[in-house]
Amino acid sequence: MLSKRIVTEREAVQLFENVCYTTSNPSTVEFPAFMSAVNKELDALDYALRLSRSEQDGEMYLAIVNTNQDSLTELATNFTAVDMGYIRELYDIIINADNENFGISALTALHLGGKMIPKLSAKDAQTILDKLVEDQWVGLKAGNYYLTTRSIAELQDYFKQQYGDTILECMFCLDMVTMGEHCANAQCCVRLHKHCADGQFNNSVDLKCPTCSTRWDRNNTFGLGLLSDSS
């Protein structure tokens, strides 16, 4: 868990059960209670176990997150100060992308370093991007970089503090949302994760926005992370 930093909830539960079996100490507590107990110990170290759903498929993940006020601390342990300047710029463009795309094209990301002071070569920028993908801080799909479950889980508080109302929240789960479905009414601010929309609309015949009652079209999506690789 410490080496991966983020695993599916199913993997975490399996790991918990394996530890109990290996130590011949069958647990008398459920996994949620175990998590709560672990978090009490981690709190003094500015760490916590946090559950977060994938915006793409709704699967639940468990991440070890740094709860320090400067949430980028965890990133900074693996990158230089110049690298971190690039990463901040990368996140800034993703968060402020036009049309609620919440992404950046691979080409734009590659040349972003050339606009910095000091400049980063395209080769150095690619090295940073590859490391971010490898460590699951960003994802790459259909030629675009986007925020991953790990970024949402660990950096959500930082993003909200840094960008305020630019950060969208899912109306149902109130978590940060960077890809999902939106109301067809341009004046309506309702945004939903696809898995939250599934829970609301899959068994409904008359699909309507929960706020303005506009007919809900499930093809009205946003976020580059939802694009297929063939797009």
Key terms:
231 residues, alpha+beta, Aspartate Aminotransferase, domain 1, Arc Repressor Mutant, subunit A, 3-stranded antiparallel β-sheet, 38% helix, globular, DNA damage, WH-like_DNA-bd_sf, EC 2.3.2.27, Znf_RING/FYVE/PHD, nucleus
Protein topology:
Elements: E1 6-8, H1 9-22, H2 31-42, E2 47-53, E3 60-66, H3 73-76, H4 81-95, E4 103-105, H5 106-112, H6 122-134, E5 138-141, E6 144-147, H7 149-163, E7 180-182, E8 191-192, H8 194-201, E9 221-222
Antiparallel strand pairs: 1-3, 2-3, 4-6, 5-6, 7-8, 7-9
Give structural notes.
It contains eight helices and nine strands. The mean pLDDT is 91. Helix 5 packs across helix 6 (122-134). It is an alpha+beta fold and 231 residues long. Among the domains are: 6-66, Aspartate Aminotransferase, domain 1 (Alpha-Beta Complex), CATH 3.90.1150; 73-165, Orthogonal Bundle (Arc Repressor Mutant, subunit A).
Give the full name of the CATH homologous superfamily of the domain at 73-165.
Answer: Winged helix-like DNA-binding domain superfamily/Winged helix DNA-binding domain
Helix content: 25-40%
The major β-sheet equals: 3 strands, antiparallel
Poorly predicted parts = none
Strand order of the largest sheet: 1-3-2
* Number of H/I helices: 8
Distance between the termini: 34 Å
List the secondary-structure elements in sequence, H or E: EHHEEHHEHHEEHEEHE
Average pLDDT level? 91
Radius of gyration: 19 Å
GO molecular function: ubiquitin protein ligase activity; zinc ion binding
Domain Non-structural maintenance of chromosomes element 1 RING C4HC3-type: 170-212
Protein name: Non-structural maintenance of chromosomes element 1 homolog
EC number: 2.3.2.27
